[in-house]
Design goal:
Layout (H helix, E strand, L loop, with lengths): L10 H25 L2 E3 L2 E3 L2 H48 L6 H5 L2 H7 L2 E2 L3 E7 L4 E3 L18 H10 L4 E8 L5 E10 L5 E8 L5 H65 L14 H30 L1
Antiparallel strand pairs: 1-2, 3-4, 4-5, 4-8, 6-7, 7-8
Helix pairs in contact: 1-6, 2-6, 6-7
């Protein structure tokens, strides 16, 4: 009796591995492209997920930056026009009172009302001369002060004010609130024509960019909703992919078995024929190459059977 040779891994597991492994690798690659980013030194691959969120963040940052910049520019314009407007009002008032002494004019409450006006929500205008002596200010303690005293305490503020002693000047400087919070202020200084007076208009620039904070809140809300929706869609996508993968694997399993089963059957038939069971039926409903193999085994069975019959007849004739 012939013994079967060990063939190692069978056709069925080979067929399963040969089909399933590439499919699993393909799914892993697709999943990696969609959900994961890789940073390999100088090379960075961004996943579709991160690409979408990064694009949204860049769009948000760009929109906020542009809106804040535009609002800051608008604030600068308002402050500048206020300084020029107050300087013009003072010029007109002084020209309308040519007989008033300069000392009396600087004490005039009407001129003070013109000189100190509100700018924005918390800002104001103030007036000093080309020697940096203040004459009009919202804070009475500042009136009469030599502003040179602020050069060391507030260097950024003094740099702008010092430039105004020679002509129009403007710029930003940091100012500490009563609560200790430091916020940037913008100041524009405009000279009063035909006098040595200079009008300074200043306020916190973020008073004008407050709408950008509302825009930022809305953009953050949109981003949060986008990420939440993306997560929900991702879960649905994963469920669908997992379902497809399971169906595909089951289909591959049964397909592989449908291919291997008739081959194993034909192998058993061939073994029986080799052992002399020539009447073993060959019942295979498969098509294609497996059907051709079944027909070949049937022909071999018939040939072997005919050869044995001829051999028996010869023996009977000799006897």
């Amino acid at each position: 009796m012939a013994t079967r040779k060990k063939t190692g891994l069978g056709l069925f597991p080979k067929l399963l591995l040969g089909v399933i492994v590439p499919i699993l690798i393909a799914f892993l690659i697709i999943g990696g492209l969609i959900f994961y980013s890789w940073d390999l030194g100088t090379f960075r691959f961004t996943s579709i997920k991160d690409m979408g969120s990064e694009s949204l963040r860049e769009l948000t940052a760009t929109a906020l930056h542009e809106s804040k910049t535009s609002l800051d520019k608008l604030g600068e314009k308002v402050i500048r026009e206020k300084a020029i407007d107050v300087a013009k009002q003072m010029e007109i008032y002084i020209k309308l009172h040519p007989k008033k002494k300069w000392e009396d004019l600087l004490k005039d409450p009407w001129l003070k009302e013109i000189a100190v006006q509100k700018v924005g929500e918390t800002g104001y205008t103030a007036v000093h001369d080309t020697n940096a002596i203040n004459y009009f200010h919202v804070n009475p303690k500042i009136v009469g002060m030599d502003l040179h005293q602020l050069s060391e305490k507030l260097p950024a503020f003094w740099k702008i004010l010092e430039a105004s002693l020679k002509g129009p000047a403007h710029g930003y400087y940091d100012w500490k609130d009563a609560d200790g919070k430091i916020r940037p202020k913008y100041m524009y200084l405009s000279p009063v024509q035909d006098t040595n007076l200079i009008v300074a208009a200043t306020t916190y620039i973020d008073e004008f960019s407050k709408p950008s904070k509302a825009i930022e809140a809305k953009m953050n809300l949109i981003e949060a909703r986008y990420l939440e929706e993306y997560e929900n869609r991702t879960k649905i996508f994963l469920i669908v992919i997992l379902g497809v993968l399971i169906i595909l694997l089951v289909r591959i399993f049964f397909f592989a078995r449908s291919v291997v089963k008739p081959i194993l059957y034909l192998s058993e038939v061939a073994d029986k024929i080799s052992l002399g069971e020539l009447d073993t039926p060959v019942r295979v409903e498969a098509k294609g190459e497996v059907a051709v193999l079944a027909e070949s085994i049937e022909r071999m069975q018939a040939s072997v059977k005919a050869a044995i019959e001829r051999l028996q007849k010869r023996r009977e004739t000799r006897a």
